[in-house]
Amino acid sequence: MNKLFNTGVLALATLASISSAHEGHNENKPSSSYSLVADYSGPTFFDGFVTFTGPDPTHGKVNYTDKAFAASTGLLGFNYHQEDNSTRARIGVDSTDKAPGNAGRNSVRLTSKATFNAGTLLVADITHMPVGPGLWPALWLLGTGAEWPAAGEIDILETVHDTPYNAMTLHTAPGCSVANSSASAPFAGHLQNPDCNAGSAMTGCSIHAPATFQSDGKNLASAGEAFNAQAGAVYATEWTPHGIKVWAFARSAVPASLNSPNPDPNSFPPPLASFSGPGCDYAESFRDMALIVNTDFCGDWAGRVWEKMGKDKGTGVKSCEEFVGERPGEFKDAFWEFYSIRVFGLGGKDVGKNPDVGREGFGVL
């Protein structure tokens, strides 16, 4: 259980009654104004998600479980925090049983029933993220209805092992390159590569955030153990036809408009990441995107850099897969915790329906 907080875990209520998240639209809003289109929060946080249960596309040592199993075993649930009388969604992993041989460690990959397009502002109030050797957690958007990466991918918060900084990355089909610089469009991070199809999209174009940066006159961690020690942060992502920006705010420094019905990113300070320039059509390269929250183990990234990041020496275990399989107790604090995730659309436009829901590997709850 989270050692940072005095928490109590509440089971998911009645799975059979799970419907959709609070999704709606307001036709009367002007096209230049954001309004709420999806709200994942409180005791209904999980209502708008299904669970992906197919083989891991990134070859991790993971077994993604369905919603009923995850709820019954405590992988999905709620933490109650007495200090602020809040109920927060918890998404964890198995920290009890070994996963020998080819068996994957039980985890959860949530995928939204709704999809979103350019003209979207996503605001995630995150209080805890998985951190530690073997882990590969991510909060991201994935294009649906097409073979990856034809409809794009936007990684909002992603790390491996105990990396202390956030890597914000775009993955696309050929023909999308970032042409901006921090001089022309100020942002705090550092662009690693401009080609969003680099490595046949496996590498993509990534902006690494600083491990810490100034927010409300104080140092704020972008990811990792320090992120959890400060009780997280509020991440905001704006995606328009002209580009994609990602911010992180201390709760004491959240822009006033984010607490209004119609947030205005023009009032925000410079972001952590800004992907823009004429080398990409951001409305076409990214489309019909579903929101995903998951925790993977090892796989194509975390497994590949196990030795490079010194995890073999640090843990005394030669491979990522062996560590994950044989050390369940290492993952007691490997969980996501959210106050909320809210999604706003320009002009109050409606959200789409995820075409992947119901096919093999996706739940229907």
From TrEMBL:
<feature type="domain" description="GH16">
    <location>
        <begin position="50"/>
        <end position="310"/>
    </location>
</feature>
<protein>
    <recommendedName>
        <fullName>GH16 domain-containing protein</fullName>
    </recommendedName>
</protein>
<dbReference type="GO" id="GO:0009251">
    <property type="term" value="P:glucan catabolic process"/>
</dbReference>
<dbReference type="InterPro" id="IPR000757">
    <property type="entry name" value="Beta-glucanase-like"/>
</dbReference>
<keyword id="KW-0732">Signal</keyword>
<dbReference type="GO" id="GO:0004553">
    <property type="term" value="F:hydrolase activity, hydrolyzing O-glycosyl compounds"/>
</dbReference>
<dbReference type="InterPro" id="IPR050546">
    <property type="entry name" value="Glycosyl_Hydrlase_16"/>
</dbReference>
<dbReference type="InterPro" id="IPR013320">
    <property type="entry name" value="ConA-like_dom_sf"/>
</dbReference>
<dbReference type="Pfam" id="PF26113">
    <property type="entry name" value="GH16_XgeA"/>
</dbReference>
<feature type="signal peptide">
    <location>
        <begin position="1"/>
        <end position="21"/>
    </location>
</feature>
